[in-house]
């Protein structure tokens, strides 16, 4: 089983702080995420700014698009992200509109559906039918306490559905074990790396753990 990729979520409230969070960590993590909070604070242009600094790094634009797929998708795609998030509550036509914008620009950006709250496996199959095969299972930072057994079971079921599954939300070094039997595509860490005493060291520790557990 391939080890999950490690993604750093930049949920900083300014570009300067995001760039500071990347110092040293950038060479360790597999994917850099322009987080919803960073895009909200700095605007969609921040994606292009980070892309210009890291032309060869996998980059996520995590704006969790909910509507106006053409306009919002278009804005996010200016920075040529490798992945672009759309919220599960969005209409399927919004998802299609984002995909249309990707095609119009001849990009290889993949749409990831961010799973919060209410959604069904029937919808997951519909997303697959329109060519979306990535989901992000999100444990909201507003939920007190860590990942439940029910959430881990949902992650397993999504993997069994053949989706590329990313997990995120309050995941730190100790929590990685929760996913160890699953073919998870990517684990996103934000605060656990950014707020660590030595962020680079923390990212290295996490990556080593991923390598050891997914031999
Ligand atoms: C918030 C997000 C975050 O990027 C994600 O939850 C990771 O953050 P943390 O590890 O700090 O919980 O998508 O909308």
Fourth-level CATH superfamily: Aldolase class I
Tell me the radius of gyration: 16 Å
Per DSSP E runs of 2 or more residues, the count of β-strands stands at: 8
Bound molecules: ribulose-5-phosphate
Strand content: 15-25%
Might you state the CATH topology name? TIM Barrel
Reported for the largest beta sheet, the result is: 8 strands, parallel, barrel
Mean pLDDT: 97
The secondary-structure class comes to alpha/beta
CATH architecture heading: Alpha-Beta Barrel
- Shape from CA axes? globular
Strand order of the largest sheet: 1-2-3-4-5-6-7-8
Please report the number of helical segments. Answer: 9
Cα separation of the termini? 7 Å
Give the SSE order as H and E letters: EHEHHEHEHEHEHEEHH
Query: Which spans have pLDDT < 50 for at least 5 consecutive residues?
Result: none
Helical amount among residues, as a percent range? 40-55%
Question: CATH class, please?
Answer: Alpha Beta
Count of folded domains: 1
Explain this structure.
The protein is α/β, with parallel strands linked by helices and 215 residues long. The chain has one domain: TIM Barrel (Alpha-Beta Barrel). Helices cover 40% and strands 20% of the residues. It has an eight-stranded parallel barrel, surrounded by seven helices. Strand 5 (110-115), helix 6 (121-129) and strand 6 (134-138) form a beta-alpha-beta unit. The chain is globular, with a radius of gyration of 16 Å. The model has no long low-confidence stretch (mean pLDDT 97). Bound molecules: ribulose-5-phosphate.
């Amino acid at each position: 089983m391939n080890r999950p990729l490690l993604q750093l979520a930049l949920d900083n409230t300014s570009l300067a702080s995001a760039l500071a969070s990347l110092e040293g960590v950038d060479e360790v993590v597999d994917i850099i995420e322009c987080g919803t909070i960073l895009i909200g604070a700095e605007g969609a242009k921040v994606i292009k700014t980070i892309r210009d600094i890291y032309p060869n790094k996998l980059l996520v634009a995590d704006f969790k698009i909910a509507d106006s797929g053409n306009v919002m998708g278009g804005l996010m795609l200016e920075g040529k992200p490798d992945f672009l998030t759309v919220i599960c509550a969005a209409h399927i036509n919004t998802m299609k509109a984002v995909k249309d914008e990707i095609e119009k620009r001849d990009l290889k950006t993949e749409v990831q559906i961010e799973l919060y709250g209410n959604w069904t496996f029937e919808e997951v199959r519909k997303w697959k039918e329109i060519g979306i095969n990535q989901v992000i299972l999100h444990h909201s930072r507003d939920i007190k306490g860590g990942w439940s057994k029910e959430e881990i079971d949902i992650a397993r079921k999504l993997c069994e559905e053949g989706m590329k599954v990313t997990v995120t939300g309050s995941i730190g070094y100790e929590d990685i074990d929760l996913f160890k039997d699953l073919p998870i595509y990517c684990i996103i860490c934000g605060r656990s790396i950014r707020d660590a005493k030595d962020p680079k060291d923390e990212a290295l520790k996490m990556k080593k753990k991923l390598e050891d557990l997914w031999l």
